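Worked example 3. Consider a protein that binds adenosine-5'-diphosphate.
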Amino acid sequence: MTPILSATDLRKTFGSTPALDGAGMSVAAGEVVAVMGPSGSGKSTLLHCLAGIVAPDSGSVVYAGRELSAMTDKERSALRRGAFGFVFQFGQLVPELSCLENVALPMRLGGTKRRVAEARAREWLDRLEVGEVGAKRPGEVSGGQGQRVAVARALVTAPKVVFADEPTGALDSLNGEQVMRLLVETARETGAAIVLVTHEARVAAYSDREVIVRDGRTRSPELVP
Ligand code: ADP
Ligand code: ADP
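Given these inputs, the predicted complex is written out as structure tokens:
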């Protein structure tokens, strides 16, 4: 299958610390890929390079046939607001806005009228089984509810690729399972691919395929002794 997003031979050094040392991976449309490995192995840096947030020192990232480094900053930020969606360990919801307004925000930034954006945001909160928190601020909801709001916000613009960096890292196992089930279910329905960074096997179990990162290099699990 042709990958929608692929990275080849990525290298990135922070000061004298090599974070990536020849890493590469690809994701097909609609595929859920788990990026696994110990803390400090380079998983987040790999995700940031794939998403165009961090520029690698060398190597290439290609999204839908286009090299990210050949795009302008404007084009890359358009990607991050449109074709790409993000879910982080801590929801990173805007604390001053209600949960409903948080989910509506990406659509509002894209020029959608408030009424339309909020109606769609309401549907997405229901879909993530947190319809009841719409009027509350992120500080007034539980960690699990907040992550479901964050998933709704990531998927509401129908992204092609969702980047999820330890999306369940701050949750207990029951809430973690729920967030993963809803994230993967809704991505399957909308056709979004997921790049899922995790160090937990039970979270990676939701993926179609695993990529292992060790010391800034990637390999398939069958090659790891
Ligand atoms: P992981 O996600 O697997 O924990 P990271 O990609 O976060 O790994 O980090 C890989 C290595 O790069 C680590 O040694 C980390 O300390 C270093 N690193 C990552 N980001 C930065 C940064 N912005 N500045 C300095 N060092 C960094
Ligand atoms: P550095 O840490 O070396 O300053 P940055 O990650 O801040 O590098 O990015 C430097 C520039 O590269 C920024 O203008 C940024 O928009 C751009 N950039 C970000 N991601 C990519 C990418 N994947 N490929 C090429 N350039 C990128």
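Take a moment to read the result before moving on. The helical segments are 43-50, 73-81, 99-109, 114-127, 143-155, 173-190, 201-204. The first strand starts at residue 3 and ends at 14.
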